[in-house]
Amino acid sequence: MADTLNINLAKALKLKNRLAGRVTKLTQTVQLYNSTQEGAEQIDVRVAFTERTDLVRRLTDLKLTITQANAPIQRDIFALAEMKAEATLLTGLNTKHGTVIEGYPTSGAVTYIAQFRKGEVTR
User: Fold this and answer.
1) CA 20 to 30 Å from 65, out of 9, 18, 85, 102?
2) Residues of the domain holding 43
3) Across the strands, what pairs with 109?
4) HEC readout, 1-39
5) In a shared domain, residues 15 and 59
């Protein structure tokens, strides 16, 4: 039987992020120290690689568990992500509307027509 531990979702997500961070550091260690100059500090890359492999397995299991726990609300999670993306789009939208003098005073006026106006975007 697999080792189990009951923790809340917030703690599981924090653990996932910590594991992912450790995997990243071990990946960098393996890449950086696999080939070094003779006489330079030698790190046991095989040990780091083995540890990384174990952490990746644990991370995969944790991600699966989180996904299974979120299954009943997965649609809401996806919808929230899409709403956040829409809010980001609207926040960055140019809502300049009306006649504006641009550049040097001799350049003249430019008239902008915004289809989404500032008030509507703010709402």
Assistant:
1) 85
2) 9-88
3) 101
4) CCCCCCCCHHHHHHHHHHHHHHHHHHHHHHHHHCCCCCC
5) yes
- Specify the pLDDT at position 1: 40
The SS3 of residue 42 is: coil
Question: 75-102 in b/e burial notation, b at 16+ Cβ within 10 A?
Answer: eeeeeeeeeeeeeeeeeeeeeeeeeeee
Residues in the chain: 123
Which residues of the chain, if any, have pLDDT below 50?
1
112 and 59 within one domain: no
Q: Please return the burial class of 58, using the count of CB atoms within 10 Å of its CB with bins 0-12, 13-18 and 19+.
A: middle
Q: What is the mean pLDDT of the chain?
A: 89
